[in-house]
Amino acid sequence: MEQTADGEDKSSRLGDVLSVSGAFEGSEDIAVARDLARSFLTDVQALHGLPVSGRAMGMVQLVASELVTNARKYAPGPCLLTLEINGGAVDVTVWDSNPTPPAILAPDPTRIGQHGLEIVMAVGQSFAIHREPVGKRITTAIVLADDPGGDPAGRQL
Q: How many whole angstroms separate alpha carbon 98 and alpha carbon 96?
């Protein structure tokens, strides 16, 4: 969890919702975004007793990395990553200053690069793009515990 200079926890708890946010300004911060995701989910499991599968831990780090990478590549200024526990999933949201929605390309195994959103959409339970007064927010939900008999993204088959 993030802490302020005086040691106060910057995460919030509202009922069953836990969240943490971080602002990122450089490409070196992509690793910091992954670390924030891993630390947050580790604390969610250890401190709050919510189950977090190894798959969920990896997928949330991957999604945070892909979304922050895209924001840093295509939008001027900083971006904001927010992770929020909502029921049995974690909502991964990245805000950036560019109001233009990203191009969502059809899967193409021969294409080199530009697979980030394709990956995010494949592993998430949901995917949404919201325009904001300044910029846009991209949100996906990753289920925390594996579905023993179904889709690893938690979707109904």
A: 6
**pLDDT, tens digit only, all 157 positions of the chain:** 343 333 444 444 445 559 999 999 977 789 999 999 999 999 999 999 999 999 999 999 999 999 999 999 999 999 999 999 998 999 999 999 999 998 877 777 787 777 788 889 989 999 999 999 999 999 999 999 986 555 555 554 4
Long-range contacts of 126-135 (CB under 8 A, 24+ apart): 129/101, 129/102, 131/99, 131/101, 132/95, 132/99, 134/97, 134/99, 135/75, 135/95, 135/96, 135/97, 135/98, 135/99
**Distance (Å, rounded) from C-alpha 137 to C-alpha 131?**
6
pTM over 0.90: no
What CA–CA distances, in Å, run from 123 to 28, 37, 127, 155? 24, 16, 10, 10
Q: How far is CA 3 from CA 10, 37, 95, 141, in A?
A: 5, 14, 21, 24
